[in-house]
Amino acid sequence: MTVEPKTILALETSCDETAAAVVQGGRRMLSNVVASQMAMHQRFGGVVPEVASRQHILSLMPVVERALEVVPGGWEGIDAIAATYGPGLSGALLTGLNAAKAMAWHRGLPFVGVNHLEAHIYANWLLEDPRTDVPAPEFPLVALVVSGGHTLLALLRDHGDYELLGQTRDDAAGEAFDKVARMLDLGYPGGPAIQHAAQGGTSAMTLPRAWLRDSFDFSFSGLKTAVLHRVQERRERDAQLLRPSSEKSSASPGQPPPSTPTSRPQPQILRGKRSLERSREPTEPTAPVAPAPKSALDPRFVGQMAHAFQESVVDVLTTKTVEAATRYNATAILVAGGVAANVRLREELSRRASVPVHAPSLALCTDNAAMVAAAAFYRFHAGLQSGWDLDVVPSLRLGQ
Amino acid sequence: MSDHRLSAIQAANQVDFISHSPAQTERVGLRLGELLLPGDLLLLLGTFGVGKTQLVRGVARGLGSDDLVTSPSFVLVNQYRASPRFAGLPIYHVDLYRIAETAELTTLGLDELWSGEGVCLIEWPEPAAPTLPEAYLAIFLQHLSETKRQLRMAPFGQRYVELLNAFKETTFS
């Protein structure tokens, strides 16, 4: 039996951020350094992988040095090294994993690879204030991981003993936020932009929810498409109102005005209005969707759509998570991942759940290395250690 | 997302048809998937919600894969495995939606995906246009109505003309 390494240095480079952290006993953060590339990606309107990989190489050592600055004895105070090995971008993962392995080899320290999804859950073990001693969550637990790349619900029976209860069958919740934000001409990142815009909305408008009965799986693709259709409809209407009447005729002569929504909620998603589309049944491709000149959408419409969209996502996530917690007698619900920062999701979960709902502070919801160190601690605790041959697994799943 | 090199071209031998449901789009993918060979490259062009991921799901099924097919918009690449009947071929499901500019995709090794042993399908491929091989099957998808989608398959290069001919044989005859 190896001695349990108490103080762990962890690296995280799976996507946007180059991060390093030192955590003691899986809970007490000595340092948590994140060199965000957000500003750079914001400039490009998305993650630029070339920027991501190259930037990881440039930022990694300065970030590690910063993380070690506050550790008494510096490197001497480190008992083990950890790094994320998946899931994520392979080039980005390789940078962090290889650096971590090299440092561990060089210093003769034990090394462990960590699953990024598991790490997100373990953000809930970290103490926000190192002076206090909040008790650690007790098993069994139900965890909801919601981010740009992932949406899953898991049952945690013990450290290292997970069961995947459900996951998205198409788009991740965070991805839907991002794409809908783009449709509504809101900025990047989409999550905060939607949340902000939704404050101006009311519950006058509703969007479909994909319940996928008898399953803890999720689906957000239909909701995304529903938003797209409403935005297109709106743009076409705006364009028709702006255009002189003589130009309208070519597209749709005698087309009835957009009727008031007639369809009642129907069993399948993707139902709703269709009046504008029916009159043209082209046999050859016309221009791509939304050919109308792109003018600014009415901010009130944007507010309503953002609100309806957010409510739909929050409703489905909350309902399934609360159901899972009840079914498996969870002592608490853990939320993790970037979308866990969403205020409405936190509110609604706390309101509907009969057990406590834990979510990390905003800084620990997004990618960071402290959560990797926390997960690593409990892996070592369970007697797990990685070999030097550990490779990145870009499509790693939870419990693998 | 507008690279004219990809969207303006018109190919001979193209096939157009209309899908009336996500299930039908998936079946089209399945028929296509059964005919794919190592090194094949498929580009999926079209906006949100036209069924690009649905089509890939069908292709994966056609290659005998049971893997969960989800949108790789944020993770950029999903990898699935074909069944033993297809020699366990890797299926690379790439999504360049988040790539804002034609960056050096080679840094990530993405170009290895479409020149290697596997089958490669790329959603939102526009940013990669300058680095793509000459031959591929382009599939343009677009909304006709809430449930209807138009699919246009356009072959570039002899391999894809043959692929599409075989597809027409198995699907429409």
UniProtKB/TrEMBL annotation, chain A:
Q: Which domain of life is it from?
A: Bacteria
The protein's required cofactors: Fe(2+)
Class of enzymatic activity (EC top level): transferase
Question: Does Zinc count among this protein's keywords?
Answer: no
Tell me the segments the record calls region Disordered: 236-296
Gene Ontology MF terms in the entry: iron ion binding; tRNA N(6)-L-threonylcarbamoyladenine synthase activity
Q: Output compositional bias ranges, type Low complexity.
A: 284-293
- Which parts of the sequence bind Fe cation? 116, 120, 367
Give the cofactor note text: Binds 1 Fe(2+) ion per subunit.
One of the record's GO cellular component terms: cytoplasm
What does it catalyze? Answer: L-threonylcarbamoyladenylate + adenosine(37) in tRNA = N(6)-L-threonylcarbamoyladenosine(37) in tRNA + AMP + H(+)
Q: Name one Pfam family in it.
A: TsaD
Instruction: Tell me yes or no: is Membrane among this UniProt entry's keywords.
Output: no
- Job of this protein: Required for the formation of a threonylcarbamoyl group on adenosine at position 37 (t(6)A37) in tRNAs that read codons beginning with adenine. Is involved in the transfer of the threonylcarbamoyl moiety of threonylcarbamoyl-AMP (TC-AMP) to the N6 group of A37, together with TsaE and TsaB. TsaD likely plays a direct catalytic role in this reaction.
Q: Protein name, please? A: tRNA N6-adenosine threonylcarbamoyltransferase
TrEMBL record, chain B:
* The protein's name in its UniProt record: tRNA threonylcarbamoyladenosine biosynthesis protein TsaE
Q: Name one GO biological process term.
A: tRNA threonylcarbamoyladenosine modification
Compartments reported by the entry = Cytoplasm
Chief subcellular location: cytoplasm
Q: Which InterPro entries match?
A: P-loop_NTPase, T6A_TsaE
Entry superkingdom: Bacteria
Specify whether Transferase is a keyword of the entry. yes
Q: Which SUPFAM superfamilies match?
A: P-loop containing nucleoside triphosphate hydrolases
Q: Which GO terms describe its molecular function?
A: ATP binding; metal ion binding; transferase activity
Does the record bear Transferase in its keywords? yes
User: What Gene3D superfamilies does this protein's entry cite?
Assistant: P-loop containing nucleotide triphosphate hydrolases
Question: What keywords were assigned to this record?
Answer: ATP-binding, Cytoplasm, Magnesium, Metal-binding, Nucleotide-binding, Transferase, tRNA processing
Task: Return the Pfam families for the record.
Answer: TsaE
**What does the similarity note say?**
Belongs to the TsaE family.
